[in-house]
Specification:
Organism: Parapontixanthobacter aurantiacus
Keywords: Cytoplasm, RNA-binding
Number of strands: 7
GO molecular function: RNA binding
Order of helices and strands: EHEHEEEHEEH
Family: Belongs to the SmpB family.
GO biological process, one term: trans-translation
Number of domains: 1
Shape: globular
Radius of gyration: 18 Å
Length: about 160
């Protein structure tokens, strides 16, 4: 079965978004991955509590892991609560994992989580991006291009 294109990921409810990543990295390719979660983690995510601002993903021994993502403890979780910043396994096809591993090792790219969301079936998913870090000059050019596109759209709207 073919995977959907990144633009067609079935996002129903976005829980956490890494907006800074679009500025800090040049995004090359996107992947949708499932998350292996404990019960209290799912309940925290459904409550809309998560932070992936300083998180990243890595491939070790043929498996992909989400590292440093903060899903706070569930308020009514008592002794069954989870550790907030534990490593979480990501569910991907072997072909996708090999593609990521090759890009990270050969091209020096980074695996950045862009968002955590629930799809229409209620499954927690992570949108991962293969990205290359931008240097300060690249960031200035990105800002200049973004501002020019905004000004151009404004001029076209005003002048018809």
């Amino acid at each position: 079965m073919a995977r959907p294109k990144p633009e067609t990921f079935d996002k129903q409810k976005t829980v956490a978004e890494n907006r800074r990543a679009r500025f800090d990295y040049a995004i090359e390719d996107k992947f949708e991955a499932g998350l292996v979660l404990q019960g209290t983690e799912v309940k925290s995510l459904r409550a809309g509590e998560a932070s992936i601002g300083e998180s990243y993903a890595e491939v070790t021994e043929g498996e992909c892991w989400l590292i440093n993502a903060n899903i706070p403890e569930f308020s009514h979780g008592n002794r069954f609560n989870h550790e907030p910043k534990r490593r979480r396994k990501l569910l991907l096809n072997e072909r996708e994992i090999n593609k990521m591993m090759g890009a990270v090792e050969r091209k020096g790219m980074t695996l950045v989580p862009m968002s955590i969301y629930f799809n229409r079936q209620g499954r927690a998913k992570v949108e991962l991006a293969l990205a290359k870090g931008r240097k300060a000059q690249d960031k200035r050019e990105y800002i200049k291009d973004r501002d020019w596109k905004r000004d151009k759209a404004r001029l076209l709207r005003e002048n018809g």
